[in-house]
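Preliminary data (for renewal application), tryptophan complex.
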Amino acid sequence: MSTSSFTAVVDRMPALRREVAADPGAHRVLTGERPTGPLHLGHLAGSIVERVRLQRSGVQVLVVLADYQVITDRENAGRVRDHVRGAVLDLLAAGLDPDRTTIFTHSAVPALNQLMLPFLSLVTEAELHRNPTVKAEHRASGRALSGLLLTYPVHQAADILCCRADLVPVGKDNLPHVELTRVIARRFAERYAPVFVAPEPMVTDSPEVPGLDGRKMSKSYGNAVELGATAEETAALIRRTRTDAERRITYDPVARPGVAGLLSAAAFCTGRTPDDIAAEIGDGGSARLKRFTAEAVNAGLAGHRARRAELAAEPGLAESVLARGNATANALAGATLAEVRTAMGMDYRDLTSGAVSPARCAGR
Ligand code: TRP
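Predicted structure:
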């Protein structure tokens, strides 16, 4: 993605915010998560808090738990059902309300996946190979580029367009996908009929909380504070984080990634700045910083964890929320697919099987 278009999106934000605030109920946001593991502090800070804010402001919110995308860069889906259930619990504990927000999985919405076929015909292989996020994720995976990884931006376009979302929150990573979604909406209109409104990307001020060691927060790096972990597990993880021997604590993400990672987590959980916390720790060294961070993170997550435990203890609750979300998504995607088929001249709904007997079809 060129920087200039990211800048253009940022420039558009104040006006877009005003438009949404003027009539929040007229807007629909789609966001997604790959259920590859338990959700962590990075997810909460980077996207979940913003979803809750949008929901509270009256915008319609849909969250896809992108289970089919789990297999873009790995061999199998692992314990995907556990991760889906965990994600539902975290989303609810964070404040998403199933009466207002739709949470669904890819695999439960056949019409969404079917939309990918006509959409694939609207993009070229070269365009997909140029997608910077596809390139980055391919490199990070260390594997051969699968057809699904190459085409996953098209799948994401199907997520967005199947439920007619007009807004998609993005970091820099997802902006190329939203741009491709706009291209697909436009090309579909040129070839068939204007079925889709092109969605707009929304850049949010969500803080990027790095992992405890300063790298990207990710379960695979062992640097992630899981939202559903216990206070003891969290304290142990924080104690294990590699820092340095310098006693004076300063916030320097480049030279002192571990110290900065701990300060960032503590800062997010206390609403303070990393520099402010570093000044308070002063010459206390890593031991004092780790005690402070463990307390701050556990205190910051205590409410979330208590609500999550309560929800988890209710048998069938996460499952029924998901069943409801899947039903809503199926209704939306089914209606969209019907329009797409009509536009493409593939509407067979008037056919019945009663008119001609199979014996006559057989010829004699
Ligand atoms: N690809 C996104 C990610 O890995 C998840 C996702 C799937 C998504 N479908 C989406 C995000 C639609 C926004 C809109 O983070």
